[in-house]
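As a warm-up, study this chain.
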Amino acid sequence: IAKGMPYYQKGCYKRALEYFLKAHEIFTSYDQREGVAMSLNNLGAAYRGIDEPESALILFKEAYQIYSAIGNPAGARQALCNQAAALIDLGDLAGAEKSLEEASKIKVGVEEGTFIPLMSNQGILLTKKKEYTKAEEILKNALAASDRENLSDIAVVNSALGNLMREKG
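Now compare it with the structure written out below.
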């Protein structure tokens, strides 16, 4: 996973896939379910990166099942958010909404309810549904709640805001 992440972060998704697949093989051979779920989630993200949302969706669903079975709410919530993103890519807005609703019910620790991937996906979904006012509110709240050190989250939210502005003309 660690060797694949730099490639993933640079957008070299096919190269990242090689490492994530190797990680999946290793975790599976040692029956390390946490690692299996993590590698499935990362594989799904890489498949989304190479525009294969159908494959990504299968991987995210399996990651969610494993995370749920082993009692990892943070992993389960992330997998659901990723699943929603793949469903949005596929044009299944109702399915994406259902995944995001389920993800929003998962509480992790004592956090205050601001999970940026959930908020950004909600904003993207609302934009696709042409509910621009709600989308803008959620995305601006996500940007305000973002950790200034987490440039990836900030980039995703700003991209979603830019797409919203383009949609609004």
